[in-house]
Amino acid sequence: MATQFYLTNVGKQAAIDAENLKVTIELAYIAVGSGRYDASQAAENLQSLTNQLARYNLSGGSTQGGTLNLIASIDSTISADIYEIGLLTEDGILFAVASTTDIDPLFTLVNEITTVVTIGMSLADVNSDSISIVIDSDGQIATQLMNEHLAADDPHPQYFLREENNQVNGNNTFNGENTFNNKNSFSKETNTTELKVSEKLEVTGESELSGKTTISGDATFTKNVVAEKNLTAETFIATESISIGAANGGSGTKAINFKPHGNDTVAASISADTQGNLKLNATGEVQIGQSLKSKNGYTALPNGFILQWGFVSFSENGWVRVPGSSDSNERYYEVTFPLAFPENIINVITGLNLKTLNQQNDLGSQTYNPKLTGVTVLTQNMSASVTREFDGIYWQAIGY
């Protein structure tokens, strides 16, 4: 450790008293705390750390040539950044301290993780012969186990290794901040509190996303997907089912929101409530299947239906006089649908469009022989004594 230790006045006096009495002062503990200060100025007057967090036994050490060497194998019971360290005697006297004023700590302790601290300290003001070290009986064993642990190729096989092409085969839980930078495979149950995928995600098993999930690349799920909270993806493909909503069947409306081009504004959403009502909302148009916006056009409808429409002007070529009719206004026209119905035509309706509001005669429109590709529309003059031309016929057809 590069940090400088400084003797306290009470520590120095304890060493002097021990030398005068021909006894040794016993260093036994290392204390850690969160206080930040300049130890070169504050050490003399300290009798304890300014904010002690924990105290642990020393594991080993020696005094050689005026230098004090100590080892502490800390089986931490806390998780904290350490900014001050104290060396304590068997009687609890603060012998020496080290601290920093920087933002960065001297080291960090993690609960239930062993940390090995080595200390070298020059004893310029006291006789090193008057100092002995009291060690934890398990300290040397713990240090040996730690060294073996660090030397192992995979000391934690149950944990994920941040390496390329990792494959995690067992049941795994990732609760903290974990980064998977390259290709990673999870062949069994994997739990994460929050999942972010920057490229491509492929899931072949059942999927339950109980936390916030963000997938900035393509996502493919080959089996059921259950999302209890927010799920964000660019391209989302599920070959089986997608379930949205709380696992316990919570009430309220759940929605799929679409935010194109990285915009935070919802451009469209699909939602369903507990009564089974499905709602599709959009700031623009709601398009279902193919459509043709034209005077003669069509649009796809829900459940596979197709609606088509058009207008035939009476002035267009193609009108044929009805055989046997004495009225020149009684004619028919072969309408070709803009889109042929794939399977069946259900209904066709027509309506005349007059040239003037007061046409002064009764006209009618009829249909004949509807087919998948078209229908014959006819006109009939109900008052043969009056001959008036009309403007044309509007028609609509529905099928699937």
TrEMBL record:
Q: Which residues form a coiled coil?
A: none
Highest taxon, organism lineage: Bacteria
Gene3D superfamilies named among the record's database cross-references = 2.60.40.3940
Domain annotation Putative tail fiber protein gp53-like C-terminal: ranges: 301-400
Q: Where is the Phage tail fibre protein N-terminal domain?
A: 1-144
InterPro entries xrefs: Gp53-like_C, Phage_tail_fibre_N
Q: Which residues form the signal peptide?
A: none
Name assigned to this protein: Phage tail-collar fibre protein
Please tell me the species this chain comes from: Acinetobacter puyangensis
